[in-house]
Design brief:
By secondary structure, the protein is an all-alpha fold. Helices cover 71% and strands 0% of the residues.
Length: 194
């Protein structure tokens, strides 16, 4: 008779996200993961595979979460400049957020991994592309509504807003002065309407 798992996989995965997000892939040992999740090494291995597989599962769950909560406004049918501003208002306030004060888990992982082959890079790349599409959608609507300058190139501006998000996330993780983060965001958003 097969043994029944004695832990909740989704709760264990949430705990894995927490520690990977805070410490990164390289600085998280499986011993620390066992301690943080409360799940034995054999249990983690059976449920998720090795450390790479667990990291990929954590990234994929986080990816779903950020698109549900953070990017959903930009992807909504009527998204426009208002949703772009709301998005960056969250980023500006995120130094006090329980989790986001560690920056964006995807941005942190992209910095750590760089351009490498394999499924983890595929998650990072897919997320980046979807983020660009979300900003492209909102900017296209904003341009049609005359909320932004008629001269902006929607695609390149969308990419630059994703870069602004990743840069801000990195500065948040570095505990950079809030004034520097706010000024960068404010000046970029003001340029949209110039």
């Amino acid at each position: 008779m097969a043994r029944v798992r004695e832990f909740n996989e989704q709760m264990a995965l949430d705990k894995a996200i927490e520690i990977f997000w805070r410490k990164g892939y390289a600085n998280t040992s499986m011993r620390e993961m066992v301690k943080h999740t409360g799940v034995a090494h054999a249990g983690l291995y059976t449920a998720f595979g090795g450390k790479d597989d667990l990291f990929q599962a954590a990234l994929e769950k986080y990816e779903k979460r950020i698109f549900m909560y953070l990017f959903s406004g930009l992807e909504s049918e009527r998204a426009s400049l208002r949703e772009i501003k709301k998005f960056f208002d969250f980023v500006k306030s995120s130094t006090s957020d329980k989790y986001f004060r560690n920056g964006c888990f995807i941005a942190n992982s992209a910095t750590e991994y760089g351009k490498s082959e394999g499924p983890i890079f595929d998650v990072l790349s897919r997320t980046f592309e979807r983020q660009i599409q979300a900003f492209t959608h909102a900017l296209s609507n904003a341009k049609n509504l005359n909320q932004v300058s008629a001269n902006i190139n929607v695609e390149t501006t969308a990419a630059s807003l994703v870069v602004l998000f990743y840069g801000s996330s990195t500065l948040i993780r570095m505990k950079a002065p809030q004034s520097a983060i706010d000024a960068a965001i404010d000046s970029n958003l003001a340029a949209l309407q110039a």
